[in-house]
């Protein structure tokens, strides 16, 4: 590949909304381009990375005996109604109507469709086990799309679904996938941990998440350095001797009485007019699922945070935005006010939460705010300025570093992770709901035993960057680099020798199957090196007139401090 025939478009500055390094660097490296909140174009440079991820996933899924198919992005609501998930999924599922007013969903996952396929195609136990997978676009209307590809609304997932005749066989299929996942994540060249995850009521211990270790990870994982024990924090907490954290409700009456909008109540209580000037605010705690109540609180806090225009706004008098009554997403509100959706969360229900407001408000502590119902409040809210951002893991959790490991092998450690994969034994949950059966050996119909297995194909590159970067840019592991090696000729336009050597090396490497790019753009060395260091190509060969006279070129790995002179002949050996 020649740079002149490709698109290289790097940026000096990261976009203002890019909070984490992977979002900043992938945007600056010209790999992704934002089209809307949580919706990105995979630009040619980024697509190459995604395709390498897909290739590894595909090879290992095929090796593990899974069969590829592609299920539609747009799926009729009927199937989702069969399992009840059309209602249960809530606002994360994007719904659309066709011209006949029929309901459809954009697939957030595909258990329903694949189970429908199984009940039609897999009639006999003789056809089992089967594992179907796809690498396909998903849509989830995430409460907080953010961090670029990390938490997109539209993203690519590899999702696989296994069908078995009985529980033992299903658990064997699960283990085949868990082993395949280890091979896949080993091949990516990232540091990761497989951790036990909550499998709901059905699965026993058969749910694991694959977490790429990174300080910016949204998940907390708990492990014992002396043993194999590793779990995500939710699972670890559920197992903790002291049980889940108790909810403090004693302060509830102070801020909220039934029938009063909690927003108004909180404002009254704080003695703040709702048009108060609050410039910035951070709410921090862990994930919550109760969208409704959280949203109400966020509406209020957004108002307080606002700029001058927002200060004119009166709560409850916004057209179409009856605060406390109608739900609105942060984006919707931001759009309404013409302001940027800021970092406003996650807000925790039934969890302590810290509010940091840049405003002349006395520092107050441990408030309760949120909704109108007992047990649906934020507890332990701290309201004031200059509060340090809490360590979410240590401060808010029941399990903390140093606690004894459940296997008794030593003290627990806690680190941050990015969930890049998830394997899950489902049992007969979906096959029962959809009456998906096959004929068993005794001639009687039986429900399929199922498992599901996801990999965040577009999240993976972001996780890789979080783990592998420096001040100059990305450092891709070889396996998923957009190009493995870049040839940087110096003065190619002036020196025929340099041009010939660069082209020859390019052709030789390409013939050997090396994913090589020749930078023939004619950029100055400084600009050229800066681009490739930002883009993160792991291997670089620089060719100049002076070195060539001695039969030498310069080789530098992206992690090396300086280049090494090597004879052209030796270079190929070095790269093998
Ligand atoms: P999360 O906890 O991060 O919201 P999840 O548990 O909802 O993820 P799963 O339903 O287990 O996700 O989906 C399988 C995989 O898809 C996840 O392990 C993750 O790698 C990826 N994934 C999920 N949501 C997103 C998203 N919004 N953007 C990018 N990748 C995602
Ligand atoms: Mg999710
Ligand atoms: Mg998860
Ligand atoms: Mg998951």
TrEMBL record:
Top class in the EC scheme: ligase
Q: Which GO terms describe its biological process?
A: prolyl-tRNA aminoacylation
Q: Has the keyword Transit peptide been applied to this entry?
A: no
Subcellular location(s) of the protein: Cytoplasm
| CDD domains associated with the record | ProRS-INS, ProRS_anticodon_short, ProRS_core_prok
The domain section of the record reads:
Consists of three domains: the N-terminal catalytic domain, the editing domain and the C-terminal anticodon-binding domain.
Report the protein name in the record.
Proline--tRNA ligase
């Amino acid at each position: 590949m020649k740079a002149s025939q490709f698109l290289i478009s790097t940026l000096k500055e990261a976009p203002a909304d890019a909070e984490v390094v992977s979002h900043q660097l992938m945007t600056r490296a010209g790999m992704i381009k934002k089209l809307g909140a949580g919706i990105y174009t995979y630009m040619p440079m980024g697509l190459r990375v995604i395709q390498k991820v897909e290739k590894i996933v595909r090879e290992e899924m095929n090796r593990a005996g899974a069969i590829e198919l592609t299920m539609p992005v747009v799926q009729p609501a009927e199937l989702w109604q069969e399992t009840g998930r059309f209602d249960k999924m809530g606002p994360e599922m994007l719904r659309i109507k066709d011209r006949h007013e029929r309901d459809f969903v954009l697939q957030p996952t595909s258990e329903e469709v694949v189970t429908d396929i199984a009940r039609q195609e897999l009639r006999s136990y003789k056809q089992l086990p089967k594992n179907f997978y796809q690498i396909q676009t998903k849509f989830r209307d995430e409460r907080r799309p953010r961090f670029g590809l990390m938490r997109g609304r539209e993203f690519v997932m590899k999702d696989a679904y296994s069908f078995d005749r009985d529980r033992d066989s299903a658990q064997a299929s699960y283990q085949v996938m868990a082993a395949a996942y280890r091979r896949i994540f080993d091949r990516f060249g990232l540091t990761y941990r497989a951790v036990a995850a909550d499998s709901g009521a059905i699965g026993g211990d058969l749910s694991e998440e694959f977490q790429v270790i990174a300080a910016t990870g949204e998940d907390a994982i708990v492990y014992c350095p002396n043993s194999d024990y590793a779990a995500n924090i939710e699972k670890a907490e559920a197992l903790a001797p002291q049980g889940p954290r108790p909810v403090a409700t004693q302060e509830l009456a102070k801020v909220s009485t039934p029938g009063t909008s909690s927003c108004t109540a909180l404002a009254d209580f704080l003695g703040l007019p709702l048009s108060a000037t609050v410039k910035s605010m951070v709410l921090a705690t862990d994930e919550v699922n109760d969208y409704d109540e959280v949203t109400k609180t966020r509406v209020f806090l957004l108002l307080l945070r606002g700029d001058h225009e927002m200060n004119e706004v009166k709560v409850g008098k916004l057209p179409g935005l009856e605060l406390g009554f109608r739900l609105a997403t942060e984006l919707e509100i931001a759009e309404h006010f013409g302001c940027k959706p800021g970092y406003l969360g996650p807000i925790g229900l039934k969890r302590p939460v810290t509010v940091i407001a840049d405003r002349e408000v006395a520092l107050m502590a441990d408030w309760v705010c949120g909704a109108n119902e007992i047990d649906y409040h934020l507890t332990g809210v701290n309201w004031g300025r200059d509060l340090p951002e809490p360590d979410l893991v240590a401060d808010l959790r029941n399990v903390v570093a140093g606690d004894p490991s459940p296997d008794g092998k030593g003290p627990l450690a806690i680190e941050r992770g990015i969930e890049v994969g998830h394997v899950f034994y489902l049992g007969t949950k979906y096959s029962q709901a959809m009456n998906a059966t096959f004929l068993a050996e005794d001639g009687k119909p039986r429900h399929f035993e199922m498992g599901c297995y996801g990999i965040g194909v577009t999240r993976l590159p972001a996780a890789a960057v979080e783990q592998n970067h420096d001040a100059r840019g990305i450092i891709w592991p070889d396996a998923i680099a957009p190009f493995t090696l870049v040839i940087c000729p110096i003065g190619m336009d002036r020196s025929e020798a340099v041009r010939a050597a660069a082209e020859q090396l390019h052709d030789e490497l390409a013939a050997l199957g090396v994913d090589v790019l020749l930078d023939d753009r004619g950029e100055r060395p400084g600009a050229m090196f800066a681009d490739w260091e930002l883009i993160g190509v792991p291997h670089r060969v620089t060719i100049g007139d002076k070195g060539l006279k001695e039969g030498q070129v310069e080789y530098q790995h992206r992690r090396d401090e300086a280049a090494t002179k090597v004879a052209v002949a030796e270079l190929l050996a070095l790269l093998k």
